[in-house]
Amino acid sequence: MFEPAIRPATAADIDAIAGLELAGLGAHAWSRVVLQAAIDSMIVLDDRSGYALVRITGATADLDRIAVDPARQGRGLGRRLLEAVIEIAYQGGATALLLEVADNNHAALGLYSACGFTRIARRDDYYGPGTAAIVMRRWLARGQDRASLET
Fold it and tell me: Would you say residue 77 lies in a domain?
């Protein structure tokens, strides 16, 4: 089975990324202009069927976006992108990776939990009335006392 490679996104990927945003995130999709400004923080599957955006600020990294073409979901592409983001954050010196996910996005919640993320907060009505955001964290430090990272 063909597995698309993961690579840094370029300006040539913006149209495909904007399409993934719209297809996967609908009303919450970012504009092409916002995506263009963040291109240096993105990775993309080389067939452009998925992408992710991760920002690293000191010891904390944030997974701001991750999307896979709805027609290609359920094939492990989201997990591959997430694993790449985790490695990028770790290699970038972060000790924790944070994300927000809609409380009704059960597939994403399951994926994040399976990849070691834990729920740390809830933001009511974050995605609109009745849809909360679940804030999740995964520690990235290896071989360290994770309790010491919380201080």
Answer: yes
| Residue 24 belongs to some domain of the structure | yes
Does residue 1 fall inside a structural domain? no
- Cβ atoms 4, 49 nearer than 8 A: yes
**Strand order through the sheet with 118-123:** 6-8, 42-45, 50-57, 60-68, 96-102, 133-139, 118-123
Q: What is the pLDDT along the chain (151 residues), one digit of tens a residue?
A: 578 999 999 999 999 999 999 998 888 899 999 999 999 999 999 999 999 999 999 999 999 999 999 999 989 999 999 999 999 999 999 999 999 999 999 999 999 999 999 999 999 999 889 999 999 999 997 655 444 444 4
**Number of structural domains the chain divides into:** 1
**Residue ranges making up the domain that contains 143:** 6-149
Q: Report the SS3 class of residue 67.
A: strand
Measured CA to CA, the distance from residue 86 to residue 62 in angstroms comes to 10
Residue 41 lies in a domain: yes
